Every structure is written in structure tokens, then in C-alpha cells.
Amino acid sequence: EFRRVLLRSMTSIELTGLKADMPIGAMAAFGVLRVCQRLPGFEGSKLAWEAGGGGDFAVLWTPGETTPEVLVQALVEDVKMAGARDELNWEEQIKTQTPGEFRRRAGAALEAGEWETAEWFAAFASELVCGRDEKIDATPFDMSVARQKFLADARKLAAGLGEDKPGRNTKSAAESYREALFGPWKYEDDQHSLGWDPSTMKLGAFTYKAPTSMANAGVRAAVWLAFESLPLFPCFAGQRGRLQVRGFRHDRRDFTLCWPVWRPAISIETLRSLLGWEGLVKDPIPATELAARGVTAVYRSERFKPNKYLSSFRAAELAAGAAG
């Protein structure tokens, strides 16, 4: 009864562009919820999933009365400030950092009481886990290779949205957010999806020309919102010194992203708890555990390497429950 009374005082916004059965769709939905906690008038927002259009899409519940356009404008204003954020400016690449330097940077954020910045560092890596080159192992979300630089590329993406200078072939920031949040996704942006959108993976054997000569095709606001979800996936040192990440299963093959779908609107704190639920990585997941947590479905997407250089999430698989 209390939940029903609470929701009657809130406004629901259907985010029909953010689909539960896509890793980037779920990440972007989580990113929206996280960003809302710092947006004036949107603090305390909750997230739900609703069936429709052949699958589940995200629904944002906001305090008081608001509109989709107000949400879009709030997100546009927020991304304009991203360029000054410490977590985007301390380095260009995570993978090149030594444990000592990473520890120093993260420790400085803690000492200054910059808790959100510290959350980002926890999501980037753990200074206790290193590769053979004595550099830190980065989050499995970092699939950058060759000339790609994870943090520099994220900074460039935010700057492009923040400048909001639409041209003949470029959408305005508001148009980009509307496409990401409400769809349909047209994949018209020259934006790499960072390996998070399986539909944009360019496999050379199946393309009409070399992938390196093909333009990127992404949904830039969706990629940015997905990036904003990373603090929900902190990194830890696990058994045998291996990297463990909330929401991921790690075996000898690689990392597999696991995420839940639910119906009642939940808070950011509850989402963190669900992502840390050990049942997400079990195989099979007991149906009684699903029901006890109000989870209707669990999706998984394995990170794979189509060749020795590239990495990407595979198309999501339904691991438990029912879609839609």
C-alpha cells in the first residue's frame, strides 16, 4: 500500500528506446537512473521495466510532476559539465596505469571527500590486480584497442554532446537524447559503441569492405548514458588475484555481463543490491530466488574476441525468466 501511495506522487516516463535485451540498452537505463540522482528535481527517481513492443523497455519514475522534455533538457545541461569532471581528465587510458599511480589518484579523491569521483575510480579498475606488463587490469567495459583511448574517447563523446552545435549531418544534443531515450535508434551518428552494442560490431568476414575503412554507426547519447552506468559496477580483487566486477561472471573464458529485469520501480540503492546478487551469475538461477527478489528475467552477454585485437559483447541471451 505504501508503494502504491508513493508512486501516485511520482510521474512515469516511458523510455521506449532503452530495451532490456541489449547490454547497451540496460546500461543506458541504469545510467539514466544514476544521473537523475544529481539532477535538480530528479533526485530520488526510480527505475522499472515494462513489457511492450516485443520486449521490455525502461520506465523512469520521477518525484512530482515532470515531462519527457524536461528530462531531456536536464540531461543536456548535465552533459555540458562533464568536461570538468576529474574522473574523465586524470588520464587518457586506464590500461596504461601502474598500480601505484592509480592508487595515488584514487586516494586523492577519497582524501578530498569527492565520493562520486572515488566511485568512478573503483569502477575503472583495482590497483590490486595487474596484468603481465605490471599495468592494472581495467574494467571489462574497457574494450579499447589500437588508437582508441577509453577515457579520452568518453571525454570526446561528452564534449560533442555538450557543445550542442548541430550541423547538416549532426543532431542537436536534445535530438540525440530523444533518440536514445524514446527511439527508434537510427544508428546515424559517427560514434563507436565501445563494444557495448553487439549490432554495431564490424566483423570483417561479413562486411562489404574492410572494417577499418567503414564509418562508425552508433547512437551517441545512448553510449554516453551507458558510460554513466559504470560506477554501479565496481572492481575488486578476487580469488587468485583475478579481477572481479559487480554484475559480471568471470571464468576461464572471459567476462559475462549479467543484469536483472524487474517490474516494480526500484531505487538506485536497490539496483546496486540487485547487481551484486550472487544469483545473477549462477547457472541455473533458482526460480525461487528470482521470485523472492521480484526479478522477472535475467539477461547475459558474454564479452568475446572476434579476432586477437577486438572485443565486444555478444547478443544478449535470456538466462532465466521470461522476456516481455
Average residue-wise pLDDT: 90
| Element-by-element helix/strand order | HEHEEHHHHEEHHHEEEEHHEEE
Contiguous uncertain segments of 5+ residues: 204-210
Please compute the radius of gyration using only Cα atoms.
Answer: 19 Å
Number of helices: 11
Could you characterize the architecture of this molecule?
- With 324 residues, the protein is an alpha+beta fold.
- It contains eleven helices and twelve strands.
- It has helices spanning 2-8, 23-36, 68-79, 86-89, 99-111, 115-124, 150-163, 173-182, 220-227, 268-275, 287-292; strands at residues 10-19, 46-52, 55-63, 125-130, 136-138, 235-237, 243-245, 248-250, 255-262, 295-304, 312-313, 317-321.
- Strands 8, 9, 10, 11 and 12 form a five-stranded antiparallel β-sheet that branches. It has a three-stranded antiparallel β-sheet with strand order 1-3-2.
- The longest helix is centred in the N-terminal third of the chain and has 14 residues, at 23-36.
Write the layout of secondary structure elements.
Elements lengths: L1 H7 L1 E10 L3 H14 L9 E7 L2 E9 L4 H12 L6 H4 L9 H13 L3 H10 E6 L5 E3 L11 H14 L9 H10 L37 H8 L7 E3 L5 E3 L2 E3 L4 E8 L5 H8 L11 H6 L2 E10 L7 E2 L3 E5 L3
Short characterization:
The protein has helices spanning 2-8, 23-36, 68-79, 86-89, 99-111, 115-124, 150-163, 173-182, 220-227, 268-275, 287-292, and strands at 10-19, 46-52, 55-63, 125-130, 136-138, 235-237, 243-245, 248-250, 255-262, 295-304, 312-313, 317-321.
